[in-house]
Specification:
Number of helices of chain B: 12
Strand content of chain C: under 5%
Number of strands of chain C: 0
CATH superfamily of one domain in chain C: MetI-like
CATH superfamily of the largest domain in chain B: MetI-like
CATH topology of one domain in chain C: MetI-like fold
Largest sheet of chain B: none
CATH class of one domain in chain C: Mainly Alpha
Largest sheet of chain C: none
CATH architecture of one domain in chain C: Orthogonal Bundle
Distance between the termini of chain C: 25 Å
Number of strands of chain B: 0
Order of helices and strands of chain B: HHHHHHHHHHHH
Number of helices of chain C: 13
Oligomer: heterotrimer
Chains: A alpha/beta (326), B mainly alpha (311), C mainly alpha (273)
Order of helices and strands of chain C: HHHHHHHHHHHHH
Distance between the termini of chain B: 13 Å
CATH topology of the largest domain in chain B: MetI-like fold
CATH class of the largest domain in chain B: Mainly Alpha
Shape of chain B: flat
CATH architecture of the largest domain in chain B: Orthogonal Bundle
Strand content of chain B: under 5%
């Protein structure tokens, strides 16, 4: 049992149906997550990282759908599971935290009840028992006075408190895998760190693997041992976190790393402009030929425009998808 | 909650006063008085002396502001004045007509809610299906039907051709007499409720918290029961409250068509006869009813939606 | 461009009514008022009288055609009055704010509290029956939605950069309202106006049916129906055709309004009207 990864994604493809045509919004995405491991997924908005997470939990909705590839959870293929089979996993074994704590909770339902639903759905608890468990769950995410807070409605809580409630919901059944989609983006900087600590602490205590999705490379590096970098629906590089910073391989990753402000850099090198990557992520319907990054790439050549680069292994499971990797 | 109700009451009071002032002023600039309208008919020609006596009797000789002052003072004691025609207190005349109108309005709203809300739900849960298309085409048609014509057609079909139901009249309040006018009156709010419900449910279906509910592993039927119904109810209730106003307004035509002895036919008859105190009183009572129903709806919404109390 | 069924069907229906109204004198078989002939009273629909005749022997087909003129006039003119009132009040209230805004708000709340048909009925009670009175009664009683919309748009637009820029350039208030604010709220206002026109056609028919609008013998669809109840057993066609004409006209306008909303006011789908 040990040694088997909790999640294996192979050649995942997600299609976007637009006006009778199908565009691959996500293509050739493969990665694995070991039990208890935290994998980071970075990329700009629109690169396909959120829909990748939604596909893992079976929540893609029209016009998006899985177009190919396999998703193995605990060694079992789940991309073709029936709706009711998938529901047994969803929330119970795989759960998800979303970006917007303001809108992710039902405004007309007390938060305790929204946590209690998890125990009723997956643990066969009665509402009475579930409400008691909800108090414990709320206490575990360190919400003060949980026995009073369970009766509160979402609008009575701050953004950080709501995200704690979301974490309590997501971890209520002690899942094997937690998908955290930009869990702190909408929060104040001071609250961000608390929420990240909470996710890290609780997931390691329960042995839950985490797929941490963010556009913030710094946050990912802080949270994860391994990092996948996505660009225009493709995983362009997967590395150990420290390697990504020390020697980024893909020109896009290099761009991302160079765009990070570094503490003390100004003292050492004087005032400098932060690097930015020229251009924007192309829309799904207009992905370029060849390497998808080539229009924005400083190293782009004829080959990049003509030929799609394959995967080059870099040892210890790392890889890069570039003709010019170093 | 009590303070919320009191606050809503206080907000309603100026509206009622404004409406009272408006309808009073409207009818004090009216060209011609009741007495002169009677002589216009040609049937009851009055000489100038009689007209002057009648105008005096009803206090129509005073300047406008004096009459308005008297009017408001009367209203404060729930005295709506005296009918020019029947010489009865207006309040009594209206009270007699209140129950039939309430029956009609309630029956048609019940019909509209019982059919329209489920229809909107079903349509929204299967967007693009034949039942969705069918009910939305039906809804826009229902909104476009002239109510009195629909009533006429129902009357023709069910009363005259098939003979299942009485064609018109009150029938002492018997249910059989209530059916046709309520349907004729209820079709438009039904259509509107179906559309509003559908739009509300579709909107909520795409809300983030519904995605959260799905991510919990909830079945679609539980998503609907646990997270959708309550949220849609606020929007549906508000629509119901607003539709009551339209229904009471439209009841005028339906009551006239079906010879229903309600407030609406009283209003039309009094307008035709220029029985101004009754016209003023009926409009005031109709507005009052409408405002009361909307207050009730607001209170219900505040019970369902905890955010309302605090804003 | 996507095929929009409601826009196309609504447009065709409404265009049909406009054509019928404009060309009524040429399309009609007889004079709608004068050509009464009791010899032909209550003739059922047939080759001579397409829609049959009424109790006075008048050709219903011709009367329905002429009725389109009245309905269209009432619908278009009264809704125009409503729109002008609503936009003027709402726009100025939203832009200027202050006591004027409070006044307009109070007026709007009062208007919303009186069912519009009841209000129109009360106005008709003061005025003498007839077309002008109808235009006034219906034109004064249905502007509250336009007003609310114009006010809300003006409130949100006035803080926009280009409006501020126009102010800095020294444009007058009226000029800013008309050239900077109005064009940006026109879409939803057209939608409300189209739907309101359907409402006005229905209200005209209802008031005429009650004998408080257009009086017989003039061929308003509503007044044609007001006598029809008595003959419904013997001559149901007298009721059927004017009613169908109202239905088709209003259906056309409602479909048109829905279709226009999809194009001109995309947020309304989620904002719910």
């Amino acid at each position: 049992m040990t040694g088997q990864p909790i999640l294996e994604v192979e050649n995942l493809r997600i299609d976007l149906a637009l006006g009778g045509k199908r565009f691959p919004a996500v293509q050739d995405v493969s990665f694995t997550i070991d039990r208890g491991e935290t994998l980071g997924l970075v990329g700009e908005s629109g690169c396909g990282k959120s829909i990748t997470a939604l596909s893992l939990i079976g929540l893609l909705r029209d016009p998006l759908m899985i177009g190919g590839g396999t998703i193995r959870f605990n060694g079992r293929e789940i991309q073709n599971l029936s709706a009711s089979e998938m529901r047994k996993l969803r929330g119970n074994r795989i759960s998800m935290i979303f970006q917007e704590p303001m809108t992710a909770l039902n405004p007309l339902s007390p938060v305790g009840r929204q946590i209690a639903e998890m125990f009723v759905l997956h643990k066969g608890a009665s509402w009475n028992e579930a409400e008691k468990l909800a108090v414990e769950a709320l206490a575990s995410v360190r919400v003060p006075a949980p026995e009073r807070r369970v009766k509160d409605y979402p609008h009575q809580l701050s953004g950080g408190m709501r995200q704690r409630v979301m974490i309590a919901i997501a971890l209520a059944c002690g899942p094997d895998l937690l998908l955290a989609d930009e869990p702190t983006t909408a929060l104040d900087v001071t609250v961000q760190a608390e929420i990240l600590d909470l996710i890290r602490e609780l997931s390691s205590a329960k042995g839950t693997a985490v797929l941490m999705i963010s556009h913030d490379l710094g946050l990912i590096a802080n949270m994860c041992r391994r990092v996948g970098v996505m660009y225009a629906g493709r995983l362009v590089e997967e590395r150990n976190a420290e390697d990504v910073f020390r020697s980024p391989s893909h020109p896009y990753t290099r761009g991302l790393v160079a765009s990070l402000p570094q503490l003390g850099a100004r003292a050492r090198h004087g005032r400098q402009r932060l690097k930015e990557i020229a251009g924007v992520v192309p829309p799904v319907s207009a992905f370029p030929e060849g390497c998808r990054f080539n229009p924005r790439c400083y190293a782009s050549t004829e080959r990049c425009r003509a030929e799609d680069p394959g995967v080059t292994a870099l040892g210890d499971g790392s890889f890069v998808r570039c003709h010019h990797h170093e | 909650m009590l303070s919320f109700i009191v606050r809503r009451l206080l907000q309603t009071l100026p509206i009622i006063l404004a409406v009272a002032a408006l309808i009073f002023l409207m009818f004090s600039v009216i060209p011609g008085t009741f007495a002169s309208s009677m002589s216009d008919d040609g049937r009851s020609v009055l000489d100038a002396e009689v007209m002057a006596r009648m105008n005096k009797e009803f206090g129509l000789e005073d300047p406008v502001y004096v009459r308005f002052g008297k009017y408001i003072a009367q209203l404060a004691t729930f005295d709506l004045g005296t009918s020019f025609r029947s010489r009865q207190p207006v309040a009594d005349v209206i009270a007699e007509r209140l129950w039939p109108t309430a029956q009609l309005a309630l029956a048609s709203m019940l019909f509209a809610i019982a059919v329209g809300v489920p229809l909107g739900f079903i349509a929204a849960l299967r967007p693009g299906s034949w039942i969705d298309t069918f009910s939305m085409v039906g809804a826009v048609s229902g909104l476009s039907l002239p109510k009195f014509w629909l009533g006429l057609m129902l009357m023709y079909l069910f009363a005259l051709v098939l003979g299942w139901l009485p064609s018109f009249g009150y029938g002492g309040g018997s249910l059989r007499y209530l059916i046709l006018p309520s349907i004729a009156l209820g079709v438009a709010p039904l259509a509107l409720l179906a559309r509003t419900t559908r739009a509300a449910v579709l909107e909520i279906m795409n809300a983030d918290f519904v995605r959260t509910a799905r991510s919990k592993g909830m079945s679609e039927s539980k998503v609907v029961r646990w997270h959708l119904t309550r949220n849609a109810l606020v929007i549906i209730l508000t629509t119901i409250g607003l539709q009551f106003g339209t229904v009471i307004g439209q009841a005028v035509v339906i009551e006239k068509l079906f010879s229903w002895p309600g407030l609406g036919s009283l209003l039309v008859d009094s307008v035709t006869l220029r029985d101004i105190p009754v016209v003023q009183g009926s409009i005031l009572v109709i507005v009052l009813l409408f405002l009361l129903i909307n207050m009730l709806v607001d209170v219900l919404c505040a019970i369902i939606d905890p955010r309302i109390k605090y804003t | 461009m996507k095929f929009r069924a409601n826009l196309v069907i609504g447009g065709v229906l409404f265009a049909g009514v406009i054509i019928a109204g404009i060309f009524a004198p040429w399309l009609a078989h007889t004079d709608p008022v004068m050509d009464a002939n009791l010899l032909y009273a209550e003739e059922p629909p047939g080759s001579e009288f397409w829609f049959g005749t009424d109790a006075q022997g008048r050709d219903i087909y011709s009367r329905v055609l002429h009725g389109a003129r009245i309905s269209l006039t009432v619908g278009i003119v009264s809704q125009l009055i409503n729109t002008v009132i609503g936009v003027a009040l709402g726009l100025s209230a939203g832009y200027w704010g202050g006591w004027w805004d409070d006044v307009v708000n109070g007026l709007t709340n009062m208007m919303l509290a009186i069912p519009s048909l009841i209000f129109a009925l009360a106005i008709m009670a003061i005025l003498n029956p007839g077309l002008t009175s109808l235009l006034i009664a219906l034109g004064l009683t249905n502007w509250s939605f336009t007003c609310r919309l114009a006010r809300a748009s003006a409130l949100s637009l006035k803080s926009q950069g280009y409006v501020q820029a126009a102010k800095v350039l020294g444009y007058g208030d009226i000029r800013i309202m008309l050239t900077q604010l109005l064009p940006n709220m026109l879409g939803p206002i057209i939608v409300i106006g189209t739907l309101g026109m359907g409402g006005a056609v229905l209200a005209e028919a209802a008031l005429s049916f009650l004998g408080l609008g257009i009086r017989p013998p003039y061929p308003s669809w509503g007044s044609m129906l007001s006598d029809a109840r008595d003959q419904i057993t013997t001559a149901p066609w007298i009721s059927i055709f004017p009613g169908l004409a109202i239905f088709m006209t209003v259906l056309g306008l409602n479909l048109l309004g829905d279709g226009l909303r999809d194009i001109l006011d995309p947020q309304a789908r989620t904002r719910r009207a």
